[in-house]
Amino acid sequence: MILSPSMLSSDFSRLGEELAALEEAGLTWAHWDVMDGSFVPNITFGPPVIKNCRKRSSLFFDVHLMIREPEKHLAAFADAGADMLVVHAEACPHLYRTLCAIRELGVKSGVAVNPATPLAALEHILDVTDMILIMTVNLCIGFLTPPLGMNLFIAQNVARTTLEKVIIEVLPFLAVLVLTLIVLIAFPEIIMVLVRLGVLPSVLPRI
Hints:
alpha/beta, 207 residues
């Protein structure tokens, strides 16, 4: 297990010291929530902040781009010292191409999905991503916006991977099984043919 504490919860006037404290505690990653005020309501870090902090830390910089058109800023964040760039599936009309572009910059690629986004949307990019970030919060807007970094936890998303795996892998099999049973019941002569061919045992009850 890797813990990646969010720098969003740190004292912005002491970022260097906060990073040093993480290293002293034995942690190896730091998570940077980059927000643009458009894709999400708040505005946080940019490449210059990460670049200066890179000089003070050897931690793995996990940079989460919660921004629109992230493909325009990949090089800037990679040059600033990001070890991994995580983009949102919802912000990338050409997600596969964007993830390939990240890897071409020499850093690891990651993709994040908001709570309402089906995990099936990621099936085509699994071979070009190093990490999938399943969001368990939705940043609020307007007068409902909580203090920076504090958002309502959506507990249902903890079970999303298991539930969607069942939906994707099990339900199609069950649908085929049910359809097969319907056909066999409607056309009992098919059973006799299958018995003669040895596909079904001869001890099956008559329908």
